[in-house]
Amino acid sequence: MRELQGFLDELGRRVRQAREKAGLGVGETARAAGVSRRYLTETEAGRANPSALVLARLAETLRVGLGELLDIPLAPSTERVALIGLRGAGKSSVGRWLARRLEVPFVELDQAVEERAGMPLAEIFDLHGAETFHRYEAEALEDVLARGERLVLAAGGSIVDSAKTYERLLATCRTVWLQARAEDHFQRVLDQGDGRPMRDRPRAMEELRELLARRSPEYARCGWALDTHGRSIGEVGAEILEAVRPGG
After folding, report:
1. What is the 3-state secondary structure (H, E, C) of 118-184?
2. What digits encode the pLDDT tens for the residues 152-173?
3. How far is CA 246 from CA 149, 169, 239, 243, in A?
4. pLDDT tens by residue, 177-223
5. Residues 170 and 222: beta-carbon distance below 8 Å
6. Which residues on adjacent β-strands are paired with residue 81?
7. Is 76's pLDDT higher than 70?
8. 3-state percent breakdown (helix, strand, coil) of the chain, nearest 5
9. Regarding the domain with residue range 81-244, which homologous superfamily does it belong to in the CATH classification?
10. Taken in order 191, 112, 102, 167, is the CA torsion positive or negative?
11. CB of 33 within 8 A of CB of 57?
12. What is the third-level CATH fold of 2-70?
């Protein structure tokens, strides 16, 4: 059932994206495709299971190939688990807990980037910029995938800004978005003893909210989404463990 819901969520995202790209409103698109406005809204939200005929009419209305809407891989059958989310989501803490229970290696993708680049992340950005960082990130991900099918990976929060690398992650790992409120992300980083989010940035919290809002639609493409607000590492880890185990 989770695989089906993931398929419907991605289908809805693609329909909405194609509609917006075509410059069409919900009502206009619904009328042209011969469906109700509510049905189209439910489809875009991943709450409807449209027939092949409806999808064909939508594709024609949106002027996209039917394959562009339907070429959606189901959740991969791998035992690799990738945790995704903004800094402070709990990826490292939950990832280590989960790796111990699964008896598999735990890998921080950012650390793998540093190893490949031979320098800290801050230096990569300062000396070479984001484009070089994402190139190293793509290479580091391939290195990690080559280690085998059984591991837990904590991905950097900005991986969604690199479309090809993110698609590769989604296709090769069972992905989990660790959701949290902006205030949670902020406080957890401060609790780690890192005051940089506040330093000389009076709009730090507002900027964090904007970043979370911008990235959330991409994070939502993960196979699972778990709200971590007010929950312990063990509680979150146990729910992921139940989900990713065979038959979960």
Report:
1. CCCHHHHHHHHCHHHHHHHHHHHHHHHHCCCCCCEEECCHHHHHCHHHHHHHHHHCEEEEEECCHHH
2. 999 999 999 999 999 999 989 9
3. 14, 20, 13, 8
4. 999 888 888 887 776 655 554 555 667 788 888 998 999 999 998 98
5. yes
6. 152, 174
7. no
8. 60, 10, 30
9. P-loop containing nucleotide triphosphate hydrolases (3.40.50.300)
10. positive
11. yes
12. 434 Repressor (Amino-terminal Domain) (1.10.260)
Residue 85 three-state SS: coil
User: Residue ranges of the domains in the chain?
Assistant: 2-70, 81-244
- According to the model, what pLDDT value does residue 1 have? 45
pLDDT given at position 2: 52
β-pairing, 174-179 with 224-227? Answer: parallel
* pLDDT for the residue 67: 83
Residue among 174, 165, 245 at smallest CA distance from 6: 174
Longest Cα separation, the chain: 57
Compute the distance between CA of residue 32 and CA of residue 35 in angstroms, rounded to an integer: 8
Percent over 70 (pLDDT), the chain = 88
Q: What is the CA radius of gyration of the chain?
A: 20
Q: Which of 88, 89, 141, 77 is nearest to 110 (CA)?
A: 141
